[in-house]
Request: fold
Amino acid sequence: MRSTRHPSTRSGAPLAFLLGSLLSGSAVYAQDSGSQDTPPPATAPAPASDAQAPAPAQAPFREEEVTQCGDKQVGTGEGMLRPLGHGFYAEGNRVRRGCTLILQRTLKNRPPVPFAPDSFRPLGCGFFRYASSIYWGRPLASEDPAREPNGQPAEVLTRLDLADAQTFEVDADCRPRDVHFLYLNHASRPELPAFVAVPRGDGQGYEELGCGFVRFEGRVFFGARSLEGVHAPSFSSVLGRLPYLECGGAMYGRDRSKVWWQHLLVRGAKARSFRVPREENPDFRVACDGRRSFQQDAVDKKPHPLCKPAKKVMVRKRK
Reply:
């Protein structure tokens, strides 16, 4: 769908924080600025403070304002694209970001469906409230591509399951927060949790499990996305309480019977025998379950040599 666009700019770094303290085990860092992440200093963990200064400015967030999409004009008349604010537009019973149709996946293994304009409340900086949930207005790499019936690309958006929709807000510098957490944005880096929660105050009910996994109020999350079908009391990170920036490709967690990579279930993997070799395994790219090898949430067709049992060396005894 062709469009006439007028990008508007929000000043400040999107979701950027300069956190001087560390959350227990999570190694919270400042927002990505194009340089490589550095290891955390050896300081005592402490909750985040709302008074901390923002990080140096980065590329500003752009809200995609349009005046026309195809043969439809933006306006308030019948059959027109009705502005909802912050670059979102209602088209009948659907919502577009700019000229791109945005969708939500309400049920697992079912086709995504449009957002209803009546329940849609843009918050700025790409975030919006929909009914009783908070969404990020850009697709993540893990989401399958979608298309409109006419073949035009559409985007499936991600819900922040951890966020408290009633109190969620974004300040003038695009820094999101709710009553429980501040949020760091790594959405452009699929190897990391898209959003990392930093507890405000004493972090009551919050437990850092390692490699991006957290437990909060009886539920388990990878970043801000909940895990489905998990036994929360028995859940742990496969690599232990390692900071998420040190876990490489091994963002694995398990409960008493199943294994997850990030928020995705690793089908066929057995929790008890699943492991990540630490030697000769750059960036922890390979995981093993017996002789089988896995990379991310998929099993390799040909097992990786790291997962083959070590050959026993026979030592002959002297007579």
